Amino acid sequence: MRYDIIVVGAGPAGLTAGLYGGRQGDNVLILEKGRVGGKGLEIPYIENYPGYKKVKGMVLIEKMKEQVSPLVDIKELEEVKSIKHENSKFIVTTTKNKYLSKAVILATGTTHRELNVPGEKEFKGRGVSYCAICDGPLYINKNILVVGGGNSAVQEAIYLKSIGCKVKLVHRRNKLRAEKYLQKKLKDLNIPVIWDSVVEKIRGNNSVEEVVLYNKKTKEKKIVEVDGVFIAIGEIPLNKLARDLGVKLDKRGYVMTDEFQRTNVQHVYAAGDITHTPNQWIVACSEGAIAALTAHNDLLRGQK
After folding, report:
1. Which regions form coiled coils (predicted)?
2. What is the pTM (predicted TM-score) of this model?
3. Domains along the chain?
4. From the first residue on, what is the mean pLDDT of each consecutive set of 10 residues in the chain (304 residues)?
């Protein structure tokens, strides 16, 4: 099967790339290893996306999918295993098929960074989670510890509190990195913050029962009884496909692009969180649109 553009990833960036490519008349395929939406499905609420005072991530994804689907082919649960460039064509091999394309847009995003502490792996799915909207309802009226200090961690803490969980936030510094409006909400909801502390161990029997915290300032340890630990300490770029293609990465492993979302490899573009621009929905959409427009024009003109 031949396409003009293959988009790898169906988060906000990938869906927007498909939208813009399809509307220009390009034959576009979007491949997604999971469900359409990617990490966008995990966002409890968005309050800074134009046109919406407040909207759930999964609702916005559903609206985007509904808009894009008539214009492009979307294949869910089909992971891309390799991309090779041969004879001016890209051969994209998935877990189910092989496809040819003239251009590729990488919108592979990131995955959750782990704490790498004792008990984390053992209790995944049994008290350790990385997605409040996925697992939060299992912990209503239970004690929850959210780990992190950025937007994601504070958003998760606010969401968990809103559905009836008993929430505390632990952060390794004495100041949050989250946006001010989120910090205000955290304070308004009386969500306690344990400052200058890191999780040293997660313990329990059949499920999580407690964590051991280490205070970096006082050098003291304390045990906090919890039923669940939600980890939101950042992301790791999913860059294997880019690396195998010879795409240039920065020192943190994110794909480097120019202002038109071109990479150093001809007819390979990148958009969204994989490029390490601000992790904002609107930024991902913008980059997806630019990548598709650039790919269309480059193919049309036969330019790099």
Report:
1. none
2. 0.90
3. 2-111+235-301 (3.50.50.60), 114-231 (3.50.50.60)
4. 97 98 97 95 90 94 97 98 94 98 97 96 96 94 97 95 97 96 96 98 97 97 97 96 98 97 98 92 97 97 64
